Amino acid sequence: MLLFSIVTIAQNTLTNIKDTYKVEDFILHKKLDSAKHYLAKLEQDSYYNILEKLVKKQELTYREYYIFTSKLSNRQSVKYQEVSEYINENVLKPADKNINLDYFEIIWIQVYKLRDEISIDEAAEKQKELEAYIYSFNQSDRNVIKAKLKSTTHPIVMYQIQGDVENGKKLCLDGLQKSEELEDKELQIIFLYYLSDFLILEGKLQEYIDVCKKSLLLENQLQHTSSYYFSTIENLINAYVYKRGHNDEVIELINILYEEEDRRIHTYSLYAQLIASLDKNSSLKKQILQKFDVTNVKDLVAKFRGLGKDLNSNDTYSLLNFSSYALSAHDYKDLALSYKDLALQTIKKTYSKELSESLANFKTDIAIKEKQKEVELEKVKTKLYAIIAILAFVLFIITLLVLRKIKKQSKELKDKNVLIEKTLQEKELLVKEVHHRVKNNFQIVSSLLELQTKGIEDERALELANEGQNRVKSMALIHQKLYQNESGLIDFDEYIRVLIKELSSMYASKTNVETLISSKNVMFDVDTAIPLGLIINEIITNSYKYAFKSDKKNSLLISLEKEENKDYKLIIEDNGPGLSTDINVKKAKSLGLRLVNRLVKQLHGTLKQTNSKGAKFEIYFKDIHQRQLVN
């Protein structure tokens, strides 16, 4: 009977939560009649009163708006773009003489969410509004000081994106010191959280762990945990798993996250990361398999992938990446490779050309709108001239006034032309900055892969991790060249020479190679450069690994030129033993050759491999313009 009562209570609670979600969704989409229907089913509490006010279109306090928008922001099933639009439309800036901290918190969270989920540009505009609001009050007021301090989190994150450890860390330490002087524990937690990000970039693992533990101690002193509580736990779990020997603490921390319905989806990558570090016969591994009702690691990661289908791209990459490590550690090598390939595809989607265009087009749209206004003003001006010509004598005085107005409008048009020119220049700088940030993010990924390799003992897994790191470096080098080049094109002769230098330094202790490169006056855009760079990286790496020996004279020939039919020809040839006759290059099972074949198809090209004095690869492909003609 008791069990039946418990089950009934649980079912009622779940139904109440689902009905609450429905009411929130209908309010968000302005379907108040439907919201009113489900509101009648809810239990009456303080949050019910807020929802009732919204349904009845009654005025809310800023505290009530904060509670409502925060609940929407924390729901995985709600698109934050819709929440942001709701805030912009309904939460107006207060006219109070003193700063309203509830309004500040609403906009501060909006900046955070826009930056991480929507657009850095939109976040920057909101940040400006927030700073203008803060600076409109007495700067010696204690609440204003706290708000001003908290608003520095946006520039801190921007320093992190740019990889500027020195300035970002300094801002964190200054904020932490002032928070301690104010004896504000929540502010201390915030700055400790961002400080930990810079410590991991510096490779200071123990300091990173100490900062996370200090933050959790402060959390225990708060009446309610901060919004950084669960993220800090995730950071500490990652550090403990990487350090090894803290499995009990890891399980305890993961369970805290798992018990929270909104955070449960983030625990699957943490479980996969832990599984990758456990022995095959570990009792803890068996407990985890039993928890998720599966019998092996292969079924476990498949289940994680299904449960985590609603994760964003960054969290999806983490889940796939750690699943790959877990599969590799438990002898599912082929499946591990496929998960690693999916993870790399996720990275490519995250840092694709579309990302650059979405950021740059924001400024372009503004320029177009300003130009349209200018055209409309010119039409108005022409109409005014016609009227003036007809009524010149009768309306002489009015004509003078109109001419004066036209002069003023001309000045405005001139100012707008200057603004348009400045906007276009900002767009060019923005595109360069995007390439710079993408390069920095690839370098962060490369550094993370390098950190991961230190914990890998399996030689094959270590080799795969190093190859993945090389591929990320080759893509980072593309974006570095784009950032440095004003034309937006990449000089491939220079790129190949830098790539050869990187690879030769890696294998310098084993071999000495005489390299001949012929690729003058060959320039490519990013859509051609990235796959072509990966192809060259894979083939040259293969030569260094299998063709070159320390006891003989090694040579490598790379030729890249444009054919008369406007296609391009790439030849890479070494003087090694060549590929085995049993290997069909186009049907090869190795990840490297599969990747080469796929990338050649992406370039609408053909691949031919022969063995004469060594392995010789001939690749014919099309640049972006020729591929567009074919499409």
UniProtKB/TrEMBL annotation:
The keyword Membrane applies. The chain crosses the membrane at residues 384-403. It comes from the Bacteria. Keywords: Membrane, Transmembrane, Transmembrane helix. Residues 527-625 form the Histidine kinase/HSP90-like ATPase domain. This is Histidine kinase/HSP90-like ATPase domain-containing protein. It comes from Polaribacter reichenbachii.
